[in-house]
Design brief:
By secondary structure, the protein is an alpha/beta fold. It folds into 3 domains: 134 residues, Rossmann fold (3-Layer(aba) Sandwich), CATH 3.40.50; 108 residues, Rossmann fold; 72 residues, NadA-like (Rossmann fold). It is built from 18 helices and 12 strands. The strands form 3 sheets. Strands 2-1-3-4 form a 4-stranded parallel beta sheet, sandwiched between helices. A 4-stranded parallel beta sheet has the order 6-5-7-8. Strand 9, helix 14 and strand 10 form a beta-alpha-beta unit. The longest helix is centred in the C-terminal third of the chain and has 22 residues. The chain is globular. The N terminus is likely disordered.
Length: 341
């Protein structure tokens, strides 16, 4: 693998730093200057190849800065990427994220070719529940609607009444019009949602391996050591959320920073989220703690180029599964559209 990449790696050419001065300016000191001769040839080659293919590259906020700022056409959280996929007119979508996101893009854009640079880019939440588990829950709680977090497989979505993201979970739960709702699979997000609604939630024992590792002690230390405001993702344990000045989705974090303009902040979430927001908020000092997602980091510039060059790792979803999952996703998007009116 290494030798293959070494042979096929794009060459550094004179003038590249000037040509991509905008990218270098965005990334600032996020990448050491010694890394530019490594990254810029890949960025240059990917930009040219995606133009030839007519492809759109979508990158989640947890992607590394050289991907997020260097080659992506669309960036954002799971909801933003789902909406972009539904509206996309490019013949090829390269999803720089994890596998369930690529599945979601394919479900919402069934006539597009959807590629993922690494088929092994998974998700602990998606792995925590199966379609059989959902069937068992439905049998145990007949008539109770199921709301499923988008961090799940297409097969699980297909057995759900609606999907949600961390940004719209409360709204989707309440849109079910039921006193009780089965909420899957993140127990921490579910517990947080339960504090904001009168709907009784039946929870599953899933968790994100990135966010569940944070502790209340880490949050307190960040506040005390750095005098920082604490902004936490709702997939974190309750004791972390109790310490936070703000709890919200990846998109809500950005809106809060724009409004509050703190001098120093600790984003208690995946590390690349802070790396990418530094460009938008250069006057804010971002400090620890953070955790890396090993699955998101499987996506690299070389394998983005390889998947475009070879049109490899296409993501497909059986139509019978896609039809059910599409209904659940469209219900989520419809709730989102009502919220924006």
């Amino acid at each position: 693998m290494t030798s293959e990449l070494a042979v096929s790696a794009p060459a550094w050419r004179e003038g590249m730093e000037h040509e991509y001065a905008d990218v270098i300016a965005k990334l600032g000191d996020r990448l050491p200057c010694l890394e530019w001769p490594l990254h810029l040839p890949w960025i240059d080659a990917i930009r040219k190849l995606k133009a030839e293919r007519g492809a759109a590259i979508m990158a989640h906020s947890y992607q590394s800065p050289e991907i997020f700022h260097g080659v992506a056409d669309v960036t954002g959280d799971s909801l933003a990427l789902a909406q972009a996929a539904a509206d996309c007119d490019a013949p090829i979508i390269v999803l720089c994220g994890v596998h369930f996101m690529a599945e979601t893009a394919k479900i919402l854009a069934p006539d597009r070719m959807v590629l993922i640079p690494d088929l092994e880019a998974g998700c602990s939440l998606a792995s925590s529940i199966t379609a059989e588990d959902v069937r068992a829950l439905r049998a145990q709680h007949p008539g109770v609607p199921v709301v499923t977090y988008v961090n799940t497989t297409a097969a699980v979505k297909a057995l759900s009444d609606a999907c949600c993201t961390s940004a719209n979970a409360v709204q989707v739960v309440e849109a079910m019009g039921s006193e009780r709702v089965i909420f899957l699979p993140d127990r921490f997000l579910g517990a947080h949602v339960a504090t904001q609604t009168a709907v009784e939630l039946i929870l599953w024992n899933g968790a994100c391996e990135v966010h569940e590792r944070f502790t209340g002690q880490q949050a307190r230390q960040a506040r005390e050591q750095f005098h920082a405001k604490l902004v936490a993702h709702p997939e974190c344990p309750p004791e972390v959320l109790a310490e936070a000045d703000f709890v919200g989705s990846t998109s809500a974090m950005g809106r809060w920073l724009a409004q509050e303009k703190p001098e120093r902040v600790a984003l208690i979430t995946e590390c690349s989220m802070a790396d990418n927001l530094r460009t938008q908020f250069p006057r804010i000092d971002f400090v620890a703690p953070c955790n890396l997602c090993p699955h998101m980091k499987r996506i690299t510039l070389p394998n983005i180029h390889a998947c475009l060059a070879k049109l490899q790792y296409e993501v497909t979803v059986p139509e019978d599964v896609a039809a059910g999952a599409r209904r659940a996703l469209q219900r989520m998007l419809e709730v989102g559209r009502r919220e924006r009116v």
